[in-house]
């Protein structure tokens, strides 16, 4: 069975698992929740992790027997593969609208989330996305919400960490020109300067590249104290390996997409010492992180990745708002989502500000030690 077929089968199985046959359930209300993310291609491990978190929340909600407008809600996940491509994202967004979903939990990437958000806004649908570029919630839409801390908030913490904790005064920055990579790099650039550091080189690549020798050679020539990369693990892994080949021993720092098992595999022994930031706190320190991890492993027979717990909370945020509004109609549950305050897997204080950003800002920096990601420092504050 091919990978795409497996994904389609999982989606059908998810929906079928939520549907209970028989006349006794004729009075149930089907609530369709849309999801779009990269389910094929090099970013499929991100999209699958996110989808699994959503599935776990929806299955739990169905077991709970939530009532909406006097009927038992049967939540169904409608999944679409946006291939991490902006044009495809707009197409599948319209497909979700046409299929009559009651809310959208996605997209994953900033570059897909932002163009798709206009489709959902025009259709009057609530969207809770993983995409973290600041532009997403700066559009002035009233229907956009996040699952994770934004790149603005994460970049500020990382830039300060590099200057103050790593004592790096001269920093080189590379980004992959995606909305995510460039957005995060831009915020790190600002934060480095605000903390008293200097960005002595900005270089650019793409999310398809795998040879960074020329870029790294140019950077080596200016002798930075540290290098920051905004982009995917598919690039940061080879980049770190090539740094080692060139004898570049300065700290290498990146964002949450690098904090993955895939990076460790791609970088090999060269991964040692790498730093990566991640919105939120370590899973074992999350409000209900251990319980979530146990439930996830029992359901999917593997440990959760970075994004699953945030997707899980994102789904529960939407479902909770529906329950409080006693309705799956977006115009009715949207006000409940705006004033939501709940304790979830990732935080005991999940709430949104006026733009749809999370009020609680938490960022953790990890480092590869003995081939594993270990926590270095966690910074928690309230958004200004």
Automatic annotation (TrEMBL):
Gene3D superfamilies: 3.40.50.2300
Domain Leucine-binding protein intervals: 30-371
Keywords of this entry: Amino-acid transport, Signal, Transport
Ranges annotated as spanning the membrane: none
Signal peptide coordinates: 1-26
Family: Belongs to the leucine-binding protein family.
Protein name: Branched chain amino acid ABC transporter substrate-binding protein
């Amino acid at each position: 069975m091919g990978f795409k077929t497996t994904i389609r089968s999982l989606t059908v199985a998810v929906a079928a698992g939520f549907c209970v046959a028989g006349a006794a359930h004729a009075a149930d209300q089907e609530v369709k929740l849309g999801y779009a993310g990269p389910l094929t291609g090099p970013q499929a491990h991100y999209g699958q992790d996110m989808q699994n978190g959503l599935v776990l929340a929806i299955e739990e909600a169905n077991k709970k027997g939530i009532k909406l407008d006097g009927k038992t809600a049967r939540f169904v996940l409608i999944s679409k593969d946006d291939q991490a491509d902006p044009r495809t994202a707009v197409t599948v967004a319209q497909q979700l609208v046409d299929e009559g979903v009651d809310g959208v939990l996605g997209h994953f990437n900033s570059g897909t989330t932002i163009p798709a958000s206009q489709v959902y806004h025009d259709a009057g649908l609530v969207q809770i996305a993983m995409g973290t570029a600041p532009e997403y919630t700066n559009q002035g839409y009233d229907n956009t919400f996040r699952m994770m801390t934004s790149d603005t908030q994460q970049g500020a913490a990382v830039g300060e960490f590099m200057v103050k904790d790593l004592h790096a005064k001269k920093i080189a920055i590379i980004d992959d020109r995606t909305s995510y990579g460039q957005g995060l790099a831009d915020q790190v650039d600002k934060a480095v300067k605000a903390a008293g550091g200097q960005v002595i080189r900005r270089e650019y690549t793409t999310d398809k590249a795998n040879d960074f020798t020329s870029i790294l050679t140019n950077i080596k020539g200016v002798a930075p104290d540290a290098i920051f990369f905004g982009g995917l693990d598919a690039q940061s892994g080879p980049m770190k390996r090539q740094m080692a080949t060139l004898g570049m021993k300065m700290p290498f720092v990146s964002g949450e997409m690098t904090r993955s098992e895939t990076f460790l595999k791609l970088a090999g022994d060269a991964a040692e010492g790498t730093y990566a930031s991640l919105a939120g706190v370590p899973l074992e320190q999350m409000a209900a992180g251990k319980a979530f991890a146990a439930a996830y492993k029992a359901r999917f027979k593997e440990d959760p990745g970075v994004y699953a717990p945030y997707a899980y909370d994102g789904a529960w945020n939407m479902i909770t708002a529906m329950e409080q509004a006693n309705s799956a109609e977006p115009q009715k549950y949207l006000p409940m989502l705006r004033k939501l305050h709940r304790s979830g897997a990732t935080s005991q204080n999940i709430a949104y500000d006026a733009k749809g950003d999370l009020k609680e800002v938490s960022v953790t920096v990890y480092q590869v030690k003995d081939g594993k990601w270990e926590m270095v420092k966690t910074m928690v504050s309230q958004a200004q």
